[in-house]
Amino acid sequence: MTIEPKTQLLTLPQALKMIADALNEPVDAVHPERTRESMVGWDSMGVLMLTAELDDRFGVELAADDSRKMQSVNDILEFLRAKKLMQD
Amino acid sequence: MSLSRIAGFRIAGISTTVPPTIAENADCAEQFGAVEVRKVMAMAGVRQRRVAAADVTSVDLCFEAAVALIDKLGWERDSITGLIFVTQSPDYFLPSSSCVLHQRLGLGSDCAAFDVGLGCSGYPYGMYLAATMLRAGGQQRILLLHGETPSKFIATEDHTTTLLFGDAGSATALESSAHAPESFFALHTDGTGAEQLIIRGGGFRDRTPTDPRHRHLEMDGAAIFNFTVKRVPALIEETLAFAGLAVRDIDSYVFHQSNRFIMLHIAKKCGLPEDRVPLILEHYGNSGGPSVPLTLTQSINQSRATRAAHGKADLPLRVMMLGYGVGLSWGSVLTEIDNDVLIIHTDYIGQQKVN
To answer: Does the interface ipTM go beyond 0.85?
Structure first.
């Protein structure tokens, strides 16, 4: 019953698409410098979507404290790199 | 490990009562903004909620559920030897609301009655207590009452909780039965998450809170999501393994109705067939722990029809009930519901006492 995490590393475009989908933003508007406050979709619902996606695809937990500290798309990318989910 | 197998008891009936007032989430668009309301409705899956009037409490809802059940079962009041009331919305700090209910239901003095202060995990815990009492001897018939009015917990300006919660009461009749098969229980706690769902004020730590937010429910949604995703799949797996059963052996997985998105995420993660995970959030919202018996009364006919379609119409319904949330506390019961178990569902009418 346990789902095996998928181990293939995300490329930068793949990571940005995953973030855009979770936060319900157009993919071409999501880049590392985008700030949290500039994105309407980065609210409590968006956080849940991203958390669920990371659990579903990788079996990785995005802790509430970690998520609260994220202030830009780059912070999410850094999290993915730290968890070895994304290419450097 | 807190795993138990208990035989020798059966569920005789389950009754639920909801307030008649229906709150439509779509009507809240002016207050919270149409986009926000649509997002919550899409994610949580809640279109309507049943909301208790200001003077109606969980005791009132459970009272009517219990009266309907006792009368239909034809149980003599004096034959009820135990009353367990599970709630986090009692009438008073003291006396126990179970004593208030004991008086209103006209039960005899040879009856143990007590409250249990658990929330979303309350139904499996309550059933475990009832089963152990029946198994210990000296008890023959127990009423397990579980009611909540979460709509009274919330701050009206907080749209994420206002649009989510509804109210419900329930009564479950359990009795000794020498030939009843084993039921399986798994009970867990992680108090490190106590602040993730909390009403900080009003208790004896802070009787008269100066911060108005402390009078209402605070919910860390992201933390609760992580808790649920981490604990509930493991709970399902553990319960199945303890009972020596596989996913397909269970006719219905009756979840505490927390949030549709989270429930579907868990169901997918565990490989549960969609038609065995009933969802009632659309019409009742999240009513806390009583959402488990409420889901049973709303879905049992469909579950029985599904089982009949698989050629098992004559067998009892094998159900896994799952409670999880505030505490943090979570638990399961895997049991059988006979075909002759009485199932009742009513709208609250405002009965005050047994005549």
So the answer is: no
